Amino acid sequence: MKNITNILITLLFITITCISLGCSNKKSNVDQHIDPEETINSSLDNLIELLWLYREGSFTNRTISFLGANSGEYLSSDWVEILIDKLDEHIQHSNINNNKRFNFNQHRGTYTWNSNQGRWVKSSNNMAIILRFPSAKNQSVNSMELHITEYTDTPVLIDGETNYLPSKARASLRHNNNEIFNMQLDNLIYVSHKYVFLPANGTLTLRMNNFVQEFTFSQNNSRHFKFEHTLRSDDKLAFGFSLNLDLRHSSYSDLSEDDFVRLYGAVNITDLVRVEADIAIGELLIRDSLTENEINDFVGLDVYSNNNKIAEMKYHDSLDNYRVIYPDGSGRDIDFFAERFLQQLESVFYIFTGNWYDW
What we know:
28% of the residues lie in helices and 44% in strands. It is an alpha+beta fold.
C-alpha cells in the first residue's frame, strides 16, 4: 500500500524527468537497436547542457546582479524592497489589489529612480509605463529599463466578486538599450464558476537568453482543457509537451475529486523522442492508498524513440518507488537517473538556491 500524497509527489518528479528526456537541440541518429539506458542518460546530460546555456544568458546574469544572488542568499533584497515600496507612492499597487483592477492608462509615464534622493521621479509619457533604475545595488546609473507598452484585462467572477485578470499585455526589459527580456500575453480567456477559474484560451510568449518559451491554453469544449509548452533556441525546437485534462461535467463549482476523469499528454523532442503519459487522475484522488497493481493500472508512462518503445515506468511496492523497465526486461530504479540528474541541476542553479541536499 502506498500513501496517495507520496504517489502524487513521485509522479510529479517522473513528469519532470519525462519532459527532460532527450531535451536537446542537437539531432542524432537513433534506430530500434538503441540502448535505452544510454539514451536516457545522454538525454538528461543534454538537458543540463541546455540549462547551462540558459543560465549563462544575459537576462539571468542581470537578474543575479540585481538581486545580489549568491549561494542561495539574496544580498540586495533590502534594496529591491525599497525600490518596490517607493514605487507605491506613484502606482499604488496596494490600492490596485483592493480595487481588483490595474488602471494602465492612468499610470502611463516614465518613472526614474533618483539614487541621491532615494525615490522615483515621474515624468510625462502618454505611450507606456517605463521604469528606469540601476542594474545593481550601490550603482547610480539607471542602465535598466522596464517597458510596459500594453495592458488590457477582462472581468472574471470569483466567489461572487468581479475581479479583473490580464487578457493581453506587452512588456520588455532592457539593459543599456539592449533588450534582454520580452513578454507577450495574447487573448487570454477564462472560464469561472464561483470559487473555480481556469485559463481556457490564450498564449503567453517569453523571450530571454536566446530562448523562446510559448505557453498555450485552449479549450475544445467545456469539459476538455489543453495546455501546451514549447522551448526553442535559435529557432529550433528543443522540446515541447502537451497536457490534456478531461472533466466529467462543466459545473465547475460542483467538481469533486472523481470528476477529474483523465490527465494525459505527450512530450515531443524534435522528431526523436516522445514520452506518453495517461493518468486516471480521478481514481488517484479519491483513494487514500493504492496497491501496486492499482497504481500501474491508473498510471501509464511509456518512452518512445522514432516510434519504437524503448522503456516504460512501473511502480514496485518492494522498492517503494518506480522502476524504468527496458524491452529486454532489465531496468533501473528511477533514483539511478534522478540522483545524478539532480546533482547536476543543483550545480546549474546553485547561485540561486544554494545546496539542496547533502549528497
